From TrEMBL:
InterPro entries: Ribosomal_eL30-like_sf (IPR029064), Ribosomal_eL8/eL30/eS12/Gad45 (IPR004038). This is Ribosomal L7Ae/L30e/S12e/Gadd45 family protein. It comes from Fusibacter paucivorans. Pfam families: Ribosomal_L7Ae. Residues 5-79 form the Ribosomal protein eL8/eL30/eS12/Gadd45 domain.
Length: 82
């Protein structure tokens, strides 16, 4: 998946809290995590992805992920729902 595809994806959800909700509700198809996100912030997301067998894609930076998600700030995580 190319990051440019995220911008207009109607099933894109951005943020750690929303990603967690999608994972716990078994609605996540793909999780994107910024490589420079603080580990204590994304540790739980990584564990949930492993438990739920959800694919993870690492993005170079929070700034890059935020821009790809069409928001003006960086994003630690994003998810594409099923």
């Amino acid at each position: 998946m190319q990051l440019e595809e995220l911008t207009n994806n109607p099933k894109l959800v951005v943020g750690v809290k929303q990603t967690t909700k999608c994972l716990t509700g078994d609605r996540a198809r793909l999780v994107l995590i910024a490589k420079d996100a603080e580990q204590h912030v994304v540790r739980h997301i990584l564990e949930l992805c492993e438990t739920k067998s959800v694919e993870i894609v690492f993005v170079d930076s929070m700034k890059t992920l935020g821009k790809a998600c069409n928001i003006d700030v960086g994003a630690a995580t994003a998810v594409i729902e099923k």
